[in-house]
Design goal:
The protein has eleven helices and ten strands. The protein is α/β, with parallel strands linked by helices. The radius of gyration is 19 Å and the shape is globular.
């Protein structure tokens, strides 16, 4: 059955925030395709999540070259769904991708060389069946390649028409200052930064947000639910099929250590009339310098619950103080 988007998708349910001092607005909640969109997941489920997201006003789909199992499969599967369901809505969508982590064998398959970055963009466009992406990121800084080379590749991507905007991800405050300066000199200002951020990973509060504000850049945060720890899934135990039990990015031991914290935070969320996940997302959005929160979803129900964060109440000073008291010891941590 052909897909027809919900005519009420822009009826005010989803707020849209300007990315820094640019002309581009992003939905308060964006959908990331890091997990759950590879060949290891049913395409029908991925399609249902993408359709429902757009119906709810989520206009930004975030990818990277190595997303999915195997690498590249998230972009390829997205391209399949895009061609069948979303091509007619292209001008309503923000589609982003990245290059930086390992993607193919050999010395040119990762990091920030011009060779790798531009080849990766061409491959991503081919997999997704797109003429251009809206945002193209340097996924991580390269410790050996000069920033001038990596930023020059981003500048070329924009000037060639293969990307409308350029962004960076996982750069420190100091590295961001360098990247901003280089891109301004090239004439292609950076649009946005994508760092990790959550209640228990607050490193961007110590300099990066100030740098972005001064530079006029937006900020879209990933892992705002701390790989699932800030959800109700870990309140009682660590499920055998959970990311904590199966992912190399998060261990069962970490989940057990953080479970007591999650229980305390959940009590605050319940008093606010929110799930723990909704409160965690609302909290990440509380700073006006945060343009959008990037969520993943393994089901339509999970997507709907998370998007519901936009309907949450404003935080009181007492609630923020309680959260700070619980999370301050981890404020400079980086998960």
């Amino acid at each position: 059955m052909s897909y027809q988007a919900d005519e009420g998708r822009y009826d005010g349910r989803m707020p849209y925030e300007r990315s820094g001092r640019s002309g581009l607005k992003l939905p308060a909640v964006s959908l990331g395709l890091w997990h759950n969109f590879g060949d290891d997941r049913p395409l029908a489920n991925s399609r249902a999540i993408l359709r429902r997201a757009f119906d709810l006003g989520v206009t930004h789909f975030d990818l990277a070259n190595n997303y999915g199992v195997p690498y590249g499969s998230a972009e390829r599967n997205f391209g399949t769904v895009y061609a069948q369901d979303f091509a007619r809505y292209r001008d309503e969508l923000i589609i982003s991708t990245k290059a930086g982590f390992d993607m193919w064998p050999g010395p040119y398959g990762e990091f920030g060389s011009r060779k790798y970055v531009l080849a990766s963009l061409d491959q991503s466009l081919l997999r997704m069946g797109l003429d251009y992406v809206d945002v193209f990121y340097s996924h991580r800084p390269d410790p050996e390649t000069p920033f001038e080379e990596t930023m020059g590749a981003l500048d070329h991507a924009v000037r060639s028409g293969k990307a409308l905007y350029a962004g960076i991800s996982n750069y420190t405050a100091e590295q961001t200052v360098q990247a901003v300066r280089i891109m301004r000199e090239l004439g292609t200002p950076l649009l946005i930064h994508q760092p990790s951020y959550s209640m228990i990973n607050r490193w961007i509060e110590h300099g990066l947000l100030d740098v972005l504000d001064e530079a006029g850049m937006g900020c879209i945060v990933y892992s705002p639910l701390a790989q699932g720890l800030l959800t109700d899934r870990y309140l009682k135990d660590v499920p055998a099929d959970s990311r904590a039990a199966t992912s190399r990015f998060l261990t069962a031991e970490q989940a057990e250590d953080d479970r007591a914290l999650a229980v305390q935070l959940n009590e605050i969320a319940a008093a606010r009339g929110q799930t723990l996940a909704q409160m965690a997302l609302s909290w990440a959005r509380r700073d006006p310098r945060v343009t959008s929160v990037l969520i993943g979803a393994s089901s339509v129900k999970q997507l709907e619950d998370n998007v519901g964060c936009v309907n949450g109440p404003e935080f009181t000073e007492d609630e923020l103080a309680q959260i700070d008291k619980l999370t301050a010891p981890r404020a400079a941590g980086d998960r």
